[in-house]
Amino acid sequence: MRYAAGVDVGSTQTKAVIMQADGGEKKMIASALVDTGANVQKAGENGFLAACKEAGIAPEQVGYVVGTGYGRYKIQFGNTQMTEISCHARGAHFLFPNTRTVIDMGGQDSKAISIGAEGNVLDFVMNDKCAAGTGRFLANAADVLAMPLDDMGPFSLKGKNPVKITTVCTVFVESDILSYLAQGKKAEDVLSGVNLAIARRTISLARRVPVEPAITMTGGVSRNVGMVKALEDVLGMKLQISPLAHFAGAMGAALYALEKMDQDSEAGVRDGAHGTNRGN
Amino acid sequence: MSNTEKSDYRGQIHQLQKEMMVEWYQKLDESATTGKPPAVSLMISGNCIELLEAFDVLPLYPEVNALQLAIRRQSLEPILVAEEMGYATDNCAYVKADIGAMVKGITPAGGKLPVAALALCNFVGCNVYTKWFEHIAEFQKSPLFMLDVPFLRTDTPSKDDVAYVVRQLHDLVKQLEQITGKKFDMDRFREAVRNSARVEELWSRIKHLSKKKPSPYDAYFDAISLMGPLYVYRANPRGVHFFEVALKEYEQMVERGQGPFEKEKFRVVLEGPPPYPFFRTFRDMFAKWGACTVASTYSTVGGLWEFGFRHDPQEPFEAIALHMIENNVTNRNYLQRYDQIRRYVEEWDADGLIIHFVKSCRLFSAGQGDMRDYFTKELGIPTLYLESDIEDPRYFSEAQIKNRMDAFFESLGHAPARTAAQLSAGKAGSGIPMVPTASPKLRVLN
Questions:
Q1: Are B39 and B114 in contact (CB under 8 A)?
Q2: Which of A33, A41, A268, A259 is nearest to B410 (CA)?
Q3: In 3-state terms, what secondary structure has residue A200?
Q4: Residues of A in contact with B385 (CB under 8 A)
Q5: B293 and B363 housed in the same domain
Q6: Does B196 reside within a domain?
Q7: Range of A259's domain?
Q8: Higher pLDDT, A186 or B2
């Protein structure tokens, strides 16, 4: 039995996954989610240890750790790093092997990835220097409406007449929302409008890569049912979403870790020791 | 996949280049004090250094001053000065850095820069520059010569277009006679053009050496080091000497199988100018992956010589006109640029293309989104699109750019190897018709 871990240190949350390989069969046996906060290094460690605990294994039993996400270079205990683009592609492919396009919406990034039959990245596009169309945009909207983030999705589905949010600026959206509320618009219609604005922006970004079915959505925003519906409406297609979509990046990292462990093992170079091959 | 390799290669040519550029700045400083020799401001694209050489006039490139400020991380202060004066955030950051520096007396090398005896706007490919040079003339009270170079609208320049530019060059000669007090000497002019032709041949050979594996130098980062002498000394025997040394150095590296990295892992083509305020940081992002640039469009901004064009000493005025109209990347249309890049990818056998969009240069960058689509969707060439700026440090987000670069090279590492033959056999022609690879001339596609 071999174990590998993927730790995805995102801008908002840190996700850790333990993957188990038994011969050629690979399965995810544990996951953990912690807030990233200011101490990125600690968040990575805490996530990893929590995942090990859930898996019921000692950290030493984990043969290889791949870090991903913006905080990946802070994961001192890891063996190597990979970008979340490669990892989300791989994770999405693991969850749904028919995936050809990945739409990932996280705290600060939204990205579209075109992938090959093996889960390899063919092309990708991301938002540039602007958090419009990301989880942060939604979080700002939630703040203005004084609503818990988790309630936003179901609540927005009640909106029947979405307002037109014209700004794509994460900061200025607050004044747009306040202005609509002042005009007496219903909060659910405002929220539904926010979702639609983000969906349009994200899909127009995604169309820069070939949007080919099947499309899998990953990232934290995939838990927002209102956002998912808006994306599907704009796209005119269904999205594949796993309950584990939030962990796709960490899962992809863990899969690469397993691969790397096997390669090293085959090469007879090493088998499972930590602390080598660290990037900068 | 990753390593911590840095691009520390420094050859004889880097030292020589530095000495020559320092000397140029010293001469500019002397000119600022004594007025001799007079200096003429002009722009890089399609520069007519041969005419200045014939009159012993110093070239003064506002673009070089701006990029030198940026590479020394001194560009933000003059940019802010210009913005306080009223230049908009969206304006060309080269313009703002240059004007702000001029107003505040900031110079990249610390010495003085002369007031231009003539602001010569050869506005090849960039219509923002007409305003830049009008402002230079206004602030410095310099006479302005507006050289109107028609944009290349056909496969090759029409006779009328060439004649139109040649007529203006004769007017320019009269103006240079006035500011220097010297009579135009046709023999000296031919000699300058002959030097240029020699340099262009040497430079072109250097450009083709990067087809070797490994490439002996980086055709973006190292080529930029060679661009100073190319624009300042091209028409002078010292330019010829410099490029002889450079060619020899790189040929020796080819013989030794040596490149800028211990191991060349990826070969890429680069489109667009660099983020000068983060030049080294940007280079290290390539070095980390052992990624060598084998061809770049930016190194053809001043002139496009690797496909055969040379200044002809027998028809020196016409040669300058052809250089300005046809043989530099900025005066050509987008489809011609596509074709130039396609040839680079195929003939220089690159793994992918990296496009660097310059936020404050809409003229060079507008359309690069479509360019990305063309190379990825029509030709199936892996293409990375990055955004920052040539001059303004505020547009550079290191974490974001690094993330994209890493993801791009990760994906190249997983991609099956491509060959030029595969690329040629791709979908080229399904959208935009392409010209045969062997054609020395690029076409305008109607």
A1: yes
A2: A259
A3: helix
A4: 125
A5: yes
A6: no
A7: 2-89+247-267
A8: A186
Q: In what order do the strands lie in the sheet with B383-388?
A: B291-296, B266-271, B352-358, B383-388
Give the tokens for residue A70: 């913006």
- Same structural domain, A169 and A105: yes
Residues in chain A, total: 280
**What is the spatial order of strands in the sheet that A101-105 belongs to?**
A121-126, A110-115, A101-105, A215-218
- Tell whether the model's pLDDT for residue B416 goes beyond 80: no
| Residue recorded with tokens 């135009």 | B184
Tokens (6 digits) for B257: 């199988």
Which amino acid, one-letter code, is at B239? G
Name the domain count of chain A: 2
Mutate to test the interface with B, among A8, A80, A81, A85 (most CBs of B within 10 A): A85
Please indicate whether, in this complex, the C-beta atoms of B406 and A83 are within 8 angstroms of each other. yes
CB contact under 8 A, A279 and B3: yes
Contact state of B376 with A126 under an 8 Å Cβ cutoff: no
What is the distance between the alpha carbons of residues B94 and B87, in angstroms, rounded to a whole number?
12
A279 assigned to some structural domain: no
Average pLDDT over residues A229-253: 95
- Burial state string for B39-77 with b = 16 or more CB within 10 A and e = fewer than 16: bbbbbbbbbbbbbbbbbebbbbbbbbbbbbbbbeebbbe
- Same domain flag for B294 and B356: yes
Closest residue, chain B, to A129 (C-alpha): B397
**Residue B118: strand pairing partners:** B40
Mean pLDDT estimate for chain B: 89
Count of CA atoms in the C-beta half-sphere (13 A) of A93? 20
Beta pairing partners, B146: B121
CATH of the domain at B45: 3.40.50.11890
pLDDT for the residue A86: 95
Is the alpha carbon torsion for B307, B313, B314, B319 positive or negative? Answer: positive
- Give the pLDDT mean for B30-45: 95
Residue A279 · residue B2 · CB < 8 Å: yes
Is there a contact between A128 and B376 if contact means CB atoms under 8 Å apart? no
Query: Is B62 in contact with B70 (CB distance < 8 Å)?
Result: no
Q: How far apart are CA B136 and CA B40, in angstroms?
A: 11
8 A C-beta contact, residue B437 and residue B346: yes
- Out of A131-135, A202-206, B219-223, the most confident range is B219-223
Instruction: Write the pLDDT tens digit of every residue in B236-273.
Output: 999 999 999 999 999 999 999 999 988 999 999 999 99
Any domain includes A52: yes
Higher-pLDDT residue of A267 and B184 is: B184
B1 contacts in chain A (CB < 8 Å): 80
Contact check, Cβ <8 Å, A208/B369: yes
